[in-house]
Amino acid sequence: MSIVNNRLTAAQYEANFSDIHPPFETRDAALVEANRCLFCYDAPCMKSCPTSIDVPKFIRQITTDNLKGSAHTILSANIMGGGCSKVCPVEKLCEGSCVYNLMDEPPIPIAKLQRFSTEKAIAEKWPLFQRKPSTHKKVAVVGAGPAGLSCAHTLSREGIDVTVFEKESKGGGLMTYGIAAYKVTPQFCEDEVNFITSLGGIAIQYNQELGKTVFLSDLQQNYDAVYLGVGVGLARQLDIPGEDLRGVEDAIRFIYDIRTNGFPSTPVGDKVAVIGLGMTAIDAATQAKRLGASEVTIVYRRTQDEMPCTEVELDLAKLDGCRIVWLAAPQEIVGENGQVTQLICSRMRLGEPDASGRRSPVETGETFTLDVDMVIKAAGQMPFEELVNANQLENRKGKIAIDGACATNLSGVFAGGDCVNGGKEVVDAVQAGKDGAKAILDFLNGWDG
Ligand code: SF4
């Protein structure tokens, strides 16, 4: 057993990481699906979209060959509607609410239709939005992830000059660095960011980290308002013996390496254990398998009824050959010569519901051991609490506290997205960015909406 890179041929990597949701092959195929839509009054699909995309409207625009209008409908509600069409858990959002589900028929493939319009708009750089003349008001946005970019785009459309400070060398945040490559490619993420900034009035300064190269007090002094969309990023530690052995890795780091270094360059173990069962855990487990691991075991301390991922995600992991061990919690990581060799787990049973409302796992006293050479931790992410405290922001369980108008306790400083809610879907962050922009426009007295 060992952790090595370059396990597969170029052709195998390509096959393993090809687009999991291929687009419509022909225009007619898209039209057939679009024409199934009942254009419901009070459409439930629209209500279940956090950004309230007018789904029946954009689908109707597809049926009348008005692709530009369709892309505009989507992107004016969600500027990352292209990326969201690839990464949203639509089975629990728009498609999960489609009325066809009540008729025991397949729902309208809303995401695929959304992709049909937006992918073309982004690839062909359609100038769908115009920026109002500059108001000469300046806003600093920290973080070029979905919340920051959505905020920046909304502000710039209103004539605000926006400077975005991003700690990575590319924009897109979680979309670019934290999602399985077979769902959305790094190239698409780059194209999407360029599409957003092509509006004008948005300058992104890369490799600028809050508290290191850029400081909140300076931003407050030099800009009319500041929006913090710094996300979350620190992996939750397991706090068990052996966590510092070679071969123990954070899921977020593992996914980041795949996306930045490429498939052949990313080392993976032969027998891999993944701790946790959220979307990040599934992305790490499936990608470990697709990189050539012979065995991937997902260890989850509760049962399928409490799991945070969707059924679709779970099926994906199973189809990739990942094994799921329910009611098991890591107790100790064992190693030899500094390298992981085993994971000892406690067998759990379900007890009373905890604060999340889910039944909590309780140790049974029994243990079992897995032979592994790599352990990937995907037990959730922690907010950047140090950053919150260092900037005298009000701390709400490590996250930034805001009021109903997205304002922090610091005058002229607003915040939204994962750094406020602890981590939700990309589409939620996009809506948070829109809300933040509206609040900033109100603050600047420039909003008449
Ligand atoms: Fe169309 Fe389904 Fe939405 Fe109704 S619920 S408008 S059928 S996509």
TrEMBL record:
Domain annotation 4Fe-4S ferredoxin-type: ranges: 28-58
Pfam families documented for this protein: Fer4_20 (PF14691), Pyr_redox_2 (PF07992)
GO terms for MF: iron-sulfur cluster binding; oxidoreductase activity
Transmembrane segments: none
Listed PANTHER family: GLUTAMATE SYNTHASE [NADPH] SMALL CHAIN, GLUTAMATE SYNTHASE [NADPH] SMALL CHAIN-RELATED
Name of this protein: FAD-dependent oxidoreductase
UniProt source species: Larkinella terrae
